[in-house]
Amino acid sequence: MRRATPTAMKLHTLALAFVLSVPVVATAAEVYRWVDDHGQVVYGTVVPERHRSTAVPASTPLPPGVSACEARWHRYMASAACFDQYRVVGGGLKAEAYKRCTEVPQPEPCT
Predict the structure, then answer these.
(1) pTM, whole model, 2 decimals?
(2) 33 with 43: CB under 8 angstroms?
(3) What are the residue ranges spanned by the domains of the chain?
(4) Which residues pair with residue 93 across a beta bridge?
(5) How far apart are CA 68 and CA 59, in angstroms?
(6) Which helix (H) or strand (E) is 42 found in, with range?
(7) 28 CB contacts (<8 Å, ≥6 apart)?
(8) Angle of CA points 73, 78, 47, to nearest 5°
(9) Tens-place pLDDT, residues 81-105
(10) Are 28 and 101 in contact (CB under 8 A)?
């Protein structure tokens, strides 16, 4: 077995130190909305292939005629989809979620 030279070990150590010192920036994936095969509006970060042509970013303005109640539910569902990216085993959330997502309380049902 070949032993690493002191110079090679220093280079490996420096390379490792550099890699570890570079900040890791996790970015939230964009949240999209689309209508599924059952006519339901769906929010998520992964759009099924068959719905990609009709999916739009959740931040896209809602079409004219959307009621105020439906708009509140839109904001709530988009918020929930954003937070879903940061869920951990056991149902908790990573602290980073609160920096990247907007908390929206669940609205009352539309009548």
Answers:
(1) 0.67
(2) yes
(3) 26-100
(4) 87
(5) 16
(6) strand 41-44
(7) 82, 85, 100, 101
(8) 125
(9) 999 999 999 889 999 999 999 999 9
(10) yes
